[in-house]
Design goal:
This protein has 577 residues and is an alpha+beta fold. It has twelve helices and 20 strands. Helix 1 runs antiparallel to helix 6, helix 5 packs across helix 6 and helix 7 packs parallel to helix 8. It is globular and about 80 Å long.
């Protein structure tokens, strides 16, 4: 076994092996979660994430899961170390969900598992899962209309759920009695611990191969390598300050829009990102903690960088983020934050708009605006509770050289739409429509993706409906002359009884009622009249746009049945445009 007294020379071949090994280990952690979780929000929707950190708590590897979570690890890690520094032992696992102690919102429970060697912490395995319910006034613990965090569910400061490999039965019982579906919540927590054990085992093998000093050295080198590559690329960007603004429709408790404003300043080899001018914190639960604001900012910049830069905290070192205290992006307690993901999506939209001015050949137009959350909860005939937390992933905006994609996760996440069969098998609901929404894309040389439609008929006698949607009022933006995407819509009922619902609502849903949601489409990229007529004809034939849309937005004449383009009429029409 290598000696631990001094780090070996960090040769490039071993460095590459270690880098790929860390990626493989953290992905194996993620696979363990999905294989052992109990709830569909984790094992089907895949709303979870995994990472490995060094002894100091800096993230050195992340799994192919929800990147939106991972930039919040530094603040949560600091809370754990402050509470438990020097008092952890092998087999311990600390959980935390308190947004004001580094968390994001209460359903996202962080688990931190230290990896020891010779009595010393050399690494941490971190697993974050969105839990189906953590109590509070509304099932699913994700309601946008809560007005203080005390209404949102059980707050957990950094506490040991496992000590020496044994579960803390007191804490487990407190969690179980405060949530509506304890079997799923406790099952998912145990899945998190099982995944941490897998990560700790594999890291132990790496330490055995390279020695403690060698392992530490390679982790430090990975962070430095990512920082160096990021700084080198930022040096090639145009210098100056680039601004952009977007908005959330409203907080749901008032009709006032919630603006998000950002200024990205490119210095020599680093960025400062300032959200001054964004909305003050709001009454409703769409406030975003600073840790989550930072996470979305880091992720936005990472999307603009080259793909061969490692996904670790070395990139974070190149970015300074500020948001006014008491704002919607840095709220003061006890501000509610349950639906903060919506604000995170708009942070990314604003960041993408600013970054498009810096690297226009990389950034897409705005997508659907983030997933829609449909929560339907009630009781079965045997009085057992059910909770549906369905997160609908929609589409991307048009890209500089390609169309937007539909029925795909938002770039900030790696979610999956819940299979219809899973929803109908496990819950009293029937999905009667799951389709694309024609003409919902933004026109452009490269069109945006079209939005999704999803409808739910309630088969139980009664349920609480909690809806979190946006882009009903403010459409996704286009870039470089591209058109706006289509707006979202929500309806309850059908026929003459169908009525529109706001984007954010908590209400009672009666048995037999039909809920329909249309997600927004992505914005277009480039001049719509420069789009290849053959591509327009193909979209008509595929049912993504109508012949009328083709004529009005692209000046292309298409036979609605065959999708054949009339070249002569198209030429005359475009000549008059």
């Amino acid at each position: 076994m290598p000696q631990d007294t001094a780090a070996p020379r960090l040769d490039p071949i071993t460095f590459a092996v270690v880098k790929n090994a860390m990626d493989a280990v953290v992905d194996e952690v993620a696979y363990t979660v999905i294989r052992t979780a109990r709830s569909e929000i984790v094992k089907d929707v895949m709303d979870y994430s995994a990472a490995i950190c060094d002894a100091k708590g800096e993230m050195v590897a992340q799994a192919k899961t929800i990147a939106q979570h991972l930039g919040a690890i530094p603040e949560a890690m600091e809370s754990v170390k402050k509470r438990w520094g020097g008092r952890l032992a092998p087999g311990d696992a600390v959980i935390v969900n308190d947004p004001y102690l580094g968390g994001m919102h209460l359903p996202d429970i962080f688990m931190f598992h230290p990896v020891f060697h010779a009595g010393e912490i050399l690494a941490w395995v971190v697993v974050i899962c969105h839990h189906t319910d953590v109590g509070g006034r509304v099932p699913g613990s994700n309601a946008a209309d809560s007005t203080e965090i005390y209404q949102e569910g059980l707050r957990i400061p950094p506490l040991k759920l496992f000590e020496g490999g044994q579960v803390n039965e007191t804490l487990e019982e407190i969690i179980a009695i405060n949530v509506r579906v304890p079997d799923r919540v406790l099952g998912d927590l145990r899945a998190q611990y099982a995944a941490c054990q897998v990560g700790a085992r594999e890291i132990g093998r790496m330490i055995g191969r390279y020695g403690a000093a060698g392992f530490r050295g390679y982790l430090a080198a990975l962070l430095d390598y990512a920082e160096r590559m990021a700084r080198e690329e930022i040096r090639t960007w145009p210098k100056g300050t680039f601004r952009f603004a977007d908005a959330i429709d409203s907080d749901g408790l008032s009709d006032d829009p919630v603006p998000i404003r950002v200024a990205v300043t490119v210095h020599d080899d680093h960025l400062t990102v300032d959200f001054a001018g964004s909305s003050p914190q709001v009454r409703a639960a769409i406030n975003s903690t600073l840790s989550f604001t930072k996470s979305n900012t880091f992720l936005s910049v990472r999307c603009a960088l080259k793909g061969d830069i490692p996904n670790n905290a070395g990139v974070f070192r190149c970015i300074t983020v500020t948001a006014p205290e008491g704002s919607v992006l840095n709220p003061l307690p006890p501000a509610p934050v349950a639906a903060r993901a919506l604000t995170g999506y708009r942070v990314m939209d604003a960041m993408f708009g600013a970054l498009a001015q810096i690297v226009p050949d990389v950034m897409p137009a705005a997508g659907e605006g983030g997933n829609t959350v449909v929560c339907i909860a009630g009781r079965r005939p045997d009085r057992q509770p059910f909770i549906i937390v369905d997160m609908i992933s929609g589409c991307w905006g048009g890209r500089p050289d390609q169309d937007g994609i539909e029925a795909i996760t938002n770039p900030s996440q790696n979610l999956s739409n819940t299979p219809v069969e899973v929803l109908e098998r496990q819950h009293p609901v029937r999905v009667e429509e799951y389709a694309l929404v024609p003409d919902s894309c933004g026109a452009g040389r490269w069109r945006g993706g079209v939005g999704l439609a999803r409808s739910y008929r309630l088969l139980a006698d009664e349920a609480v409906l909690q809806l979190r949607a946006d882009r009903v009022r403010f459409a996704p933006y286009g870039l470089d002359g591209g058109g706006e995407g289509g707006r979202a819509g929500n309806w309850l009922g059908e026929g003459e009884d169908r009525r529109a619902l706001p984007g954010k609502v908590t209400m009672t849903m009666r048995g037999g009622e039909l809920l329909t949601h249309h997600q927004a489409g992505g914005g277009g990229h480039g001049d719509p009249f420069a789009r290849d007529p053959a591509l327009v004809g193909r979209d008509v034939w595929n049912g993504k746009i109508s012949a009328a849309f083709a004529r009005d937005r692209h000046r292309v004449v298409v036979d609605p049945e065959s999708g054949m383009v009339d070249a002569s009429q198209t030429a005359r029409l475009r000549a008059r445009a």
